[in-house]
Amino acid sequence: MVKKLEHQWRSWWRSLHKNNYFVIKLGVSVLLVGLAFMLIYNRSSDSSAVSTAPFLENTVSADSEENTDQIPSKGKIFLLLHFQSFLPDLSAFGKWLNFFAVYGTESIDSEEKCNLFIGEWVAYKAEPLYTNSSCSFIEDHQNCMKNGRPDTDYLYWRWNPQGCELGQPDPGRFLELMREKRWAFIGDSISRNHVQSFLCVLSTVEMAVEVYHDEEYKSRRWVFPMHNFTVSVIWSPFLTHAAIFEDINGVSTSEIELHLDILDKNWTEQYKSFDYMVLSVGKWFTKPAIYYENNTILGCHNCSNSNFTRLGFNYAYRRAMSNVFGYIIASNHKGMIFYRTSPPDHFEGGEWFSGGTCTRTAPVKEGEFELNELDKILRDIEVEEFEKIVVKASETGVNLKLFDVHPMSVLRPDGHPGPYRFYQPFAKDKNASIISDCLHWCLPGPIDTWNDVLMEMIING
């Protein structure tokens, strides 16, 4: 009976927890604790009721305060409530209360402490699931080992979440769960980096086959034939409609024209067809841009026209996030939608254009790496805008989750290509001045852990 009640309680509580009914959980918890103390108080003044309970005869005497104090308070609640269960007018709620008094607090505490995104990196000697030579999905500028990066210690760390265990990745089981499903990673080049890791991990079980790419290979689609499982990456660096005048090397001939109130059709036209989505943007909002709403210029960020109102990129990012989340809430889509927070870059001593580098070879502890101001602003906006709508998402049945890779990623300044974005950058001159990539991630590397967590959330969440 207790096991059955335990199972029912845990199922009920997790349901509330997953749907973010914080207020309901708090109210129920306060109500249950209050009722428990009422029962203790009432029974302490009713000696005949306590003494007639057969399982209390050799445990506690109603007129012995000393003996009563020897029993832990949770034990008192359990005994009193268990006695209450013999009364004919006891409701089903009383049975829930009975179980809560014994198991509830510890169960809730243990769940609340488990956060897959908060923790530390620990040394781990097992080999990565794949290598730079075994996975064909790695682009040259993320193939750090092929490009000559001399150290490999960055491969041998494992994420250790606070209060819980992150299981070993199980790509075979994940593929079985994904039969007939469709995934999309939607965003900028970090999303492309992410999907490459995703494909590398899963292709240790079954090789993905490319079935589509656009002219510039920015939007692509693959299928795992044996599972009829489709994975897409959709290029949409703002999630809103943008005219971009930039070449492959990031050189612009004009400011970006960004329509904050019009979402990008590259992803919205396919939105309903996906069972799972991971959306994320961020860094592109810091570029010079002119902002539009209702096809009217509102202002700009770092633009050359002195007549335009100066609006910070934070204004545009907040407006875009609000519109994206509003669209998701109103969509009534029944798939699972993750918003991935933007990871920080790790340039030190300058930016990418002014000599910034990332030469560290090991993770750092929390607080040891100072985020730049742009990353702080992006993160604050993402979290604040998500918190505004997460309760409404639950109320409308939209399965929206924050995939918060930022805390774990900030601790890995060692995981970027740096100068090894380029092939053998110091082969001709060991003192060559090379632009470093401290934004994207080596493959294999720390970004693979994003997928460990993602699969954990799907398989055991």
UniProtKB/TrEMBL annotation:
Keyword Transferase (UniProt): no
Boundaries of every Trichome birefringence-like N-terminal domain copy: 112-165
Pfam families: PC-Esterase (PF13839), PMR5N (PF14416)
MF (Gene Ontology): O-acetyltransferase activity
Protein name per UniProt: Trichome birefringence-like N-terminal domain-containing protein
Superkingdom of the source species: Eukaryota
Keywords linked to the UniProt accession: Membrane, Signal-anchor, Transmembrane, Transmembrane helix
Cross-referenced InterPro entries: TBL, TBL_C, TBL_N
Keyword Transmembrane in record: yes
Domain Trichome birefringence-like C-terminal, chain residue ranges per copy: 170-457
Membrane-crossing segments per the record: 21-41
Subcellular location, principal: membrane
Similarity comment text for this entry: Belongs to the PC-esterase family. TBL subfamily.
Membrane topology, from the record: Single-pass membrane protein
GO cellular component: Golgi apparatus; membrane
Subcellular location: Membrane
